[in-house]
């Protein structure tokens, strides 16, 4: 019986360690493995006793079950509820009920700037997505040091040069802001929370197109404008020479440069509000695009008016906004 208990415990420990290594956090795997191993050893190693069918289980079996449950939950929880949001030393700098901005000590200035910019973005994105943008829940986390960023990346199993977005199974979506990611990185990843909140489930090209379009923005005559070409998405709209199959590109949604140019075209032609209004009304995405009758003007735009759209090297919600 002891050998069997040891064997089960060893298997549990090894599996948890392998899981932790795959998730780039061997310490988590070790901690969970010890819990799982102890739980299996205690649970399997219990001697059966003739107490009758209704006799309560021995205390060691109960303890084993508890340890086993804790170990499994600890493995799953970082992805399911994004534990690093609570485990790393973060302070809530802003909280309006639906949105929170969290940061460590060195990220307070950036967090405050982001909180002050939220009303500007609310007005701009309301023109796209309709009323209620400010009620879409999200946590913005300013990762102001390598240790905090590493913990957040391991918890989400994601990383990105310009931050990243994570939607856990339980709790609010999270936008992680890396130092130097810029305002465009914030709005890009934020749109992955806003689009499903306001438009419901849509094909991938809808949130991706909106996210890429939201990257480049600056105030023009007191109003936040997104009518800018990107200086780094290659190939951008004016660099397209060969006609592309619009339906195929939208269906595959694997070329963010192409999707950005298409949404920039819709914005430039004043068709974006019509498309998004149709999506909010429940019109299927492919039908909503077909109603716009964008071809062949879509291809002609690439060779003409797209060249007149100014290129923006950065992004900012207002002229005096600090860099993130």
Task: List key phrases describing it.
324 residues, alpha/beta, 5-stranded mixed sheet, two-stranded antiparallel ribbon, globular
Provide the fold topology:
Blueprint: H1 2-22, H2 26-44, H3 59-80, H4 84-87, E1 91-95, E2 99-103, H5 108-129, E3 138-142, H6 146-156, E4 164-166, E5 174-177, H7 182-199, H8 205-213, E6 218-220, E7 223-225, E8 229-230, H9 246-252, H10 256-268, H11 272-280, H12 285-292, H13 297-303, E9 311-312
Parallel strand pairs: 2-3, 3-5, 8-9
Antiparallel strand pairs: 1-2, 4-5, 6-7
Helix pairs in contact: 1-2, 2-3, 7-8, 8-10, 11-12
Question: How would you explain this protein's 3D organization?
Answer:
- This protein is of the alpha/beta class.
- The chain has three domains: 2-79, no CATH class; 91-198, no CATH class; 223-312, no CATH class.
- The chain has 13 helices and nine strands.
- It has helices at residues 2-22, 26-44, 59-80, 84-87, 108-129, 146-156, 182-199, 205-213, 246-252, 256-268, 272-280, 285-292, 297-303; strands spanning 91-95, 99-103, 138-142, 164-166, 174-177, 218-220, 223-225, 229-230, 311-312.
- The strands form three sheets. It has a five-stranded mixed sheet with strand order 1-2-3-5-4, sandwiched between helices. Strands 6-7 form a two-stranded antiparallel sheet. A two-stranded parallel sheet has the order 8-9.
- A hairpin with a 2-residue loop joins strand 6 (218-220) and strand 7.
- Helix 1 runs antiparallel to helix 2, helix 7 runs antiparallel to helix 8 (205-213) and helix 11 (272-280) runs antiparallel to helix 12 (285-292).
- The longest helix is centred in the N-terminal third of the chain and has 22 residues, at 59-80.
- It starts with a helix and ends in a 12-residue tail after the last strand.
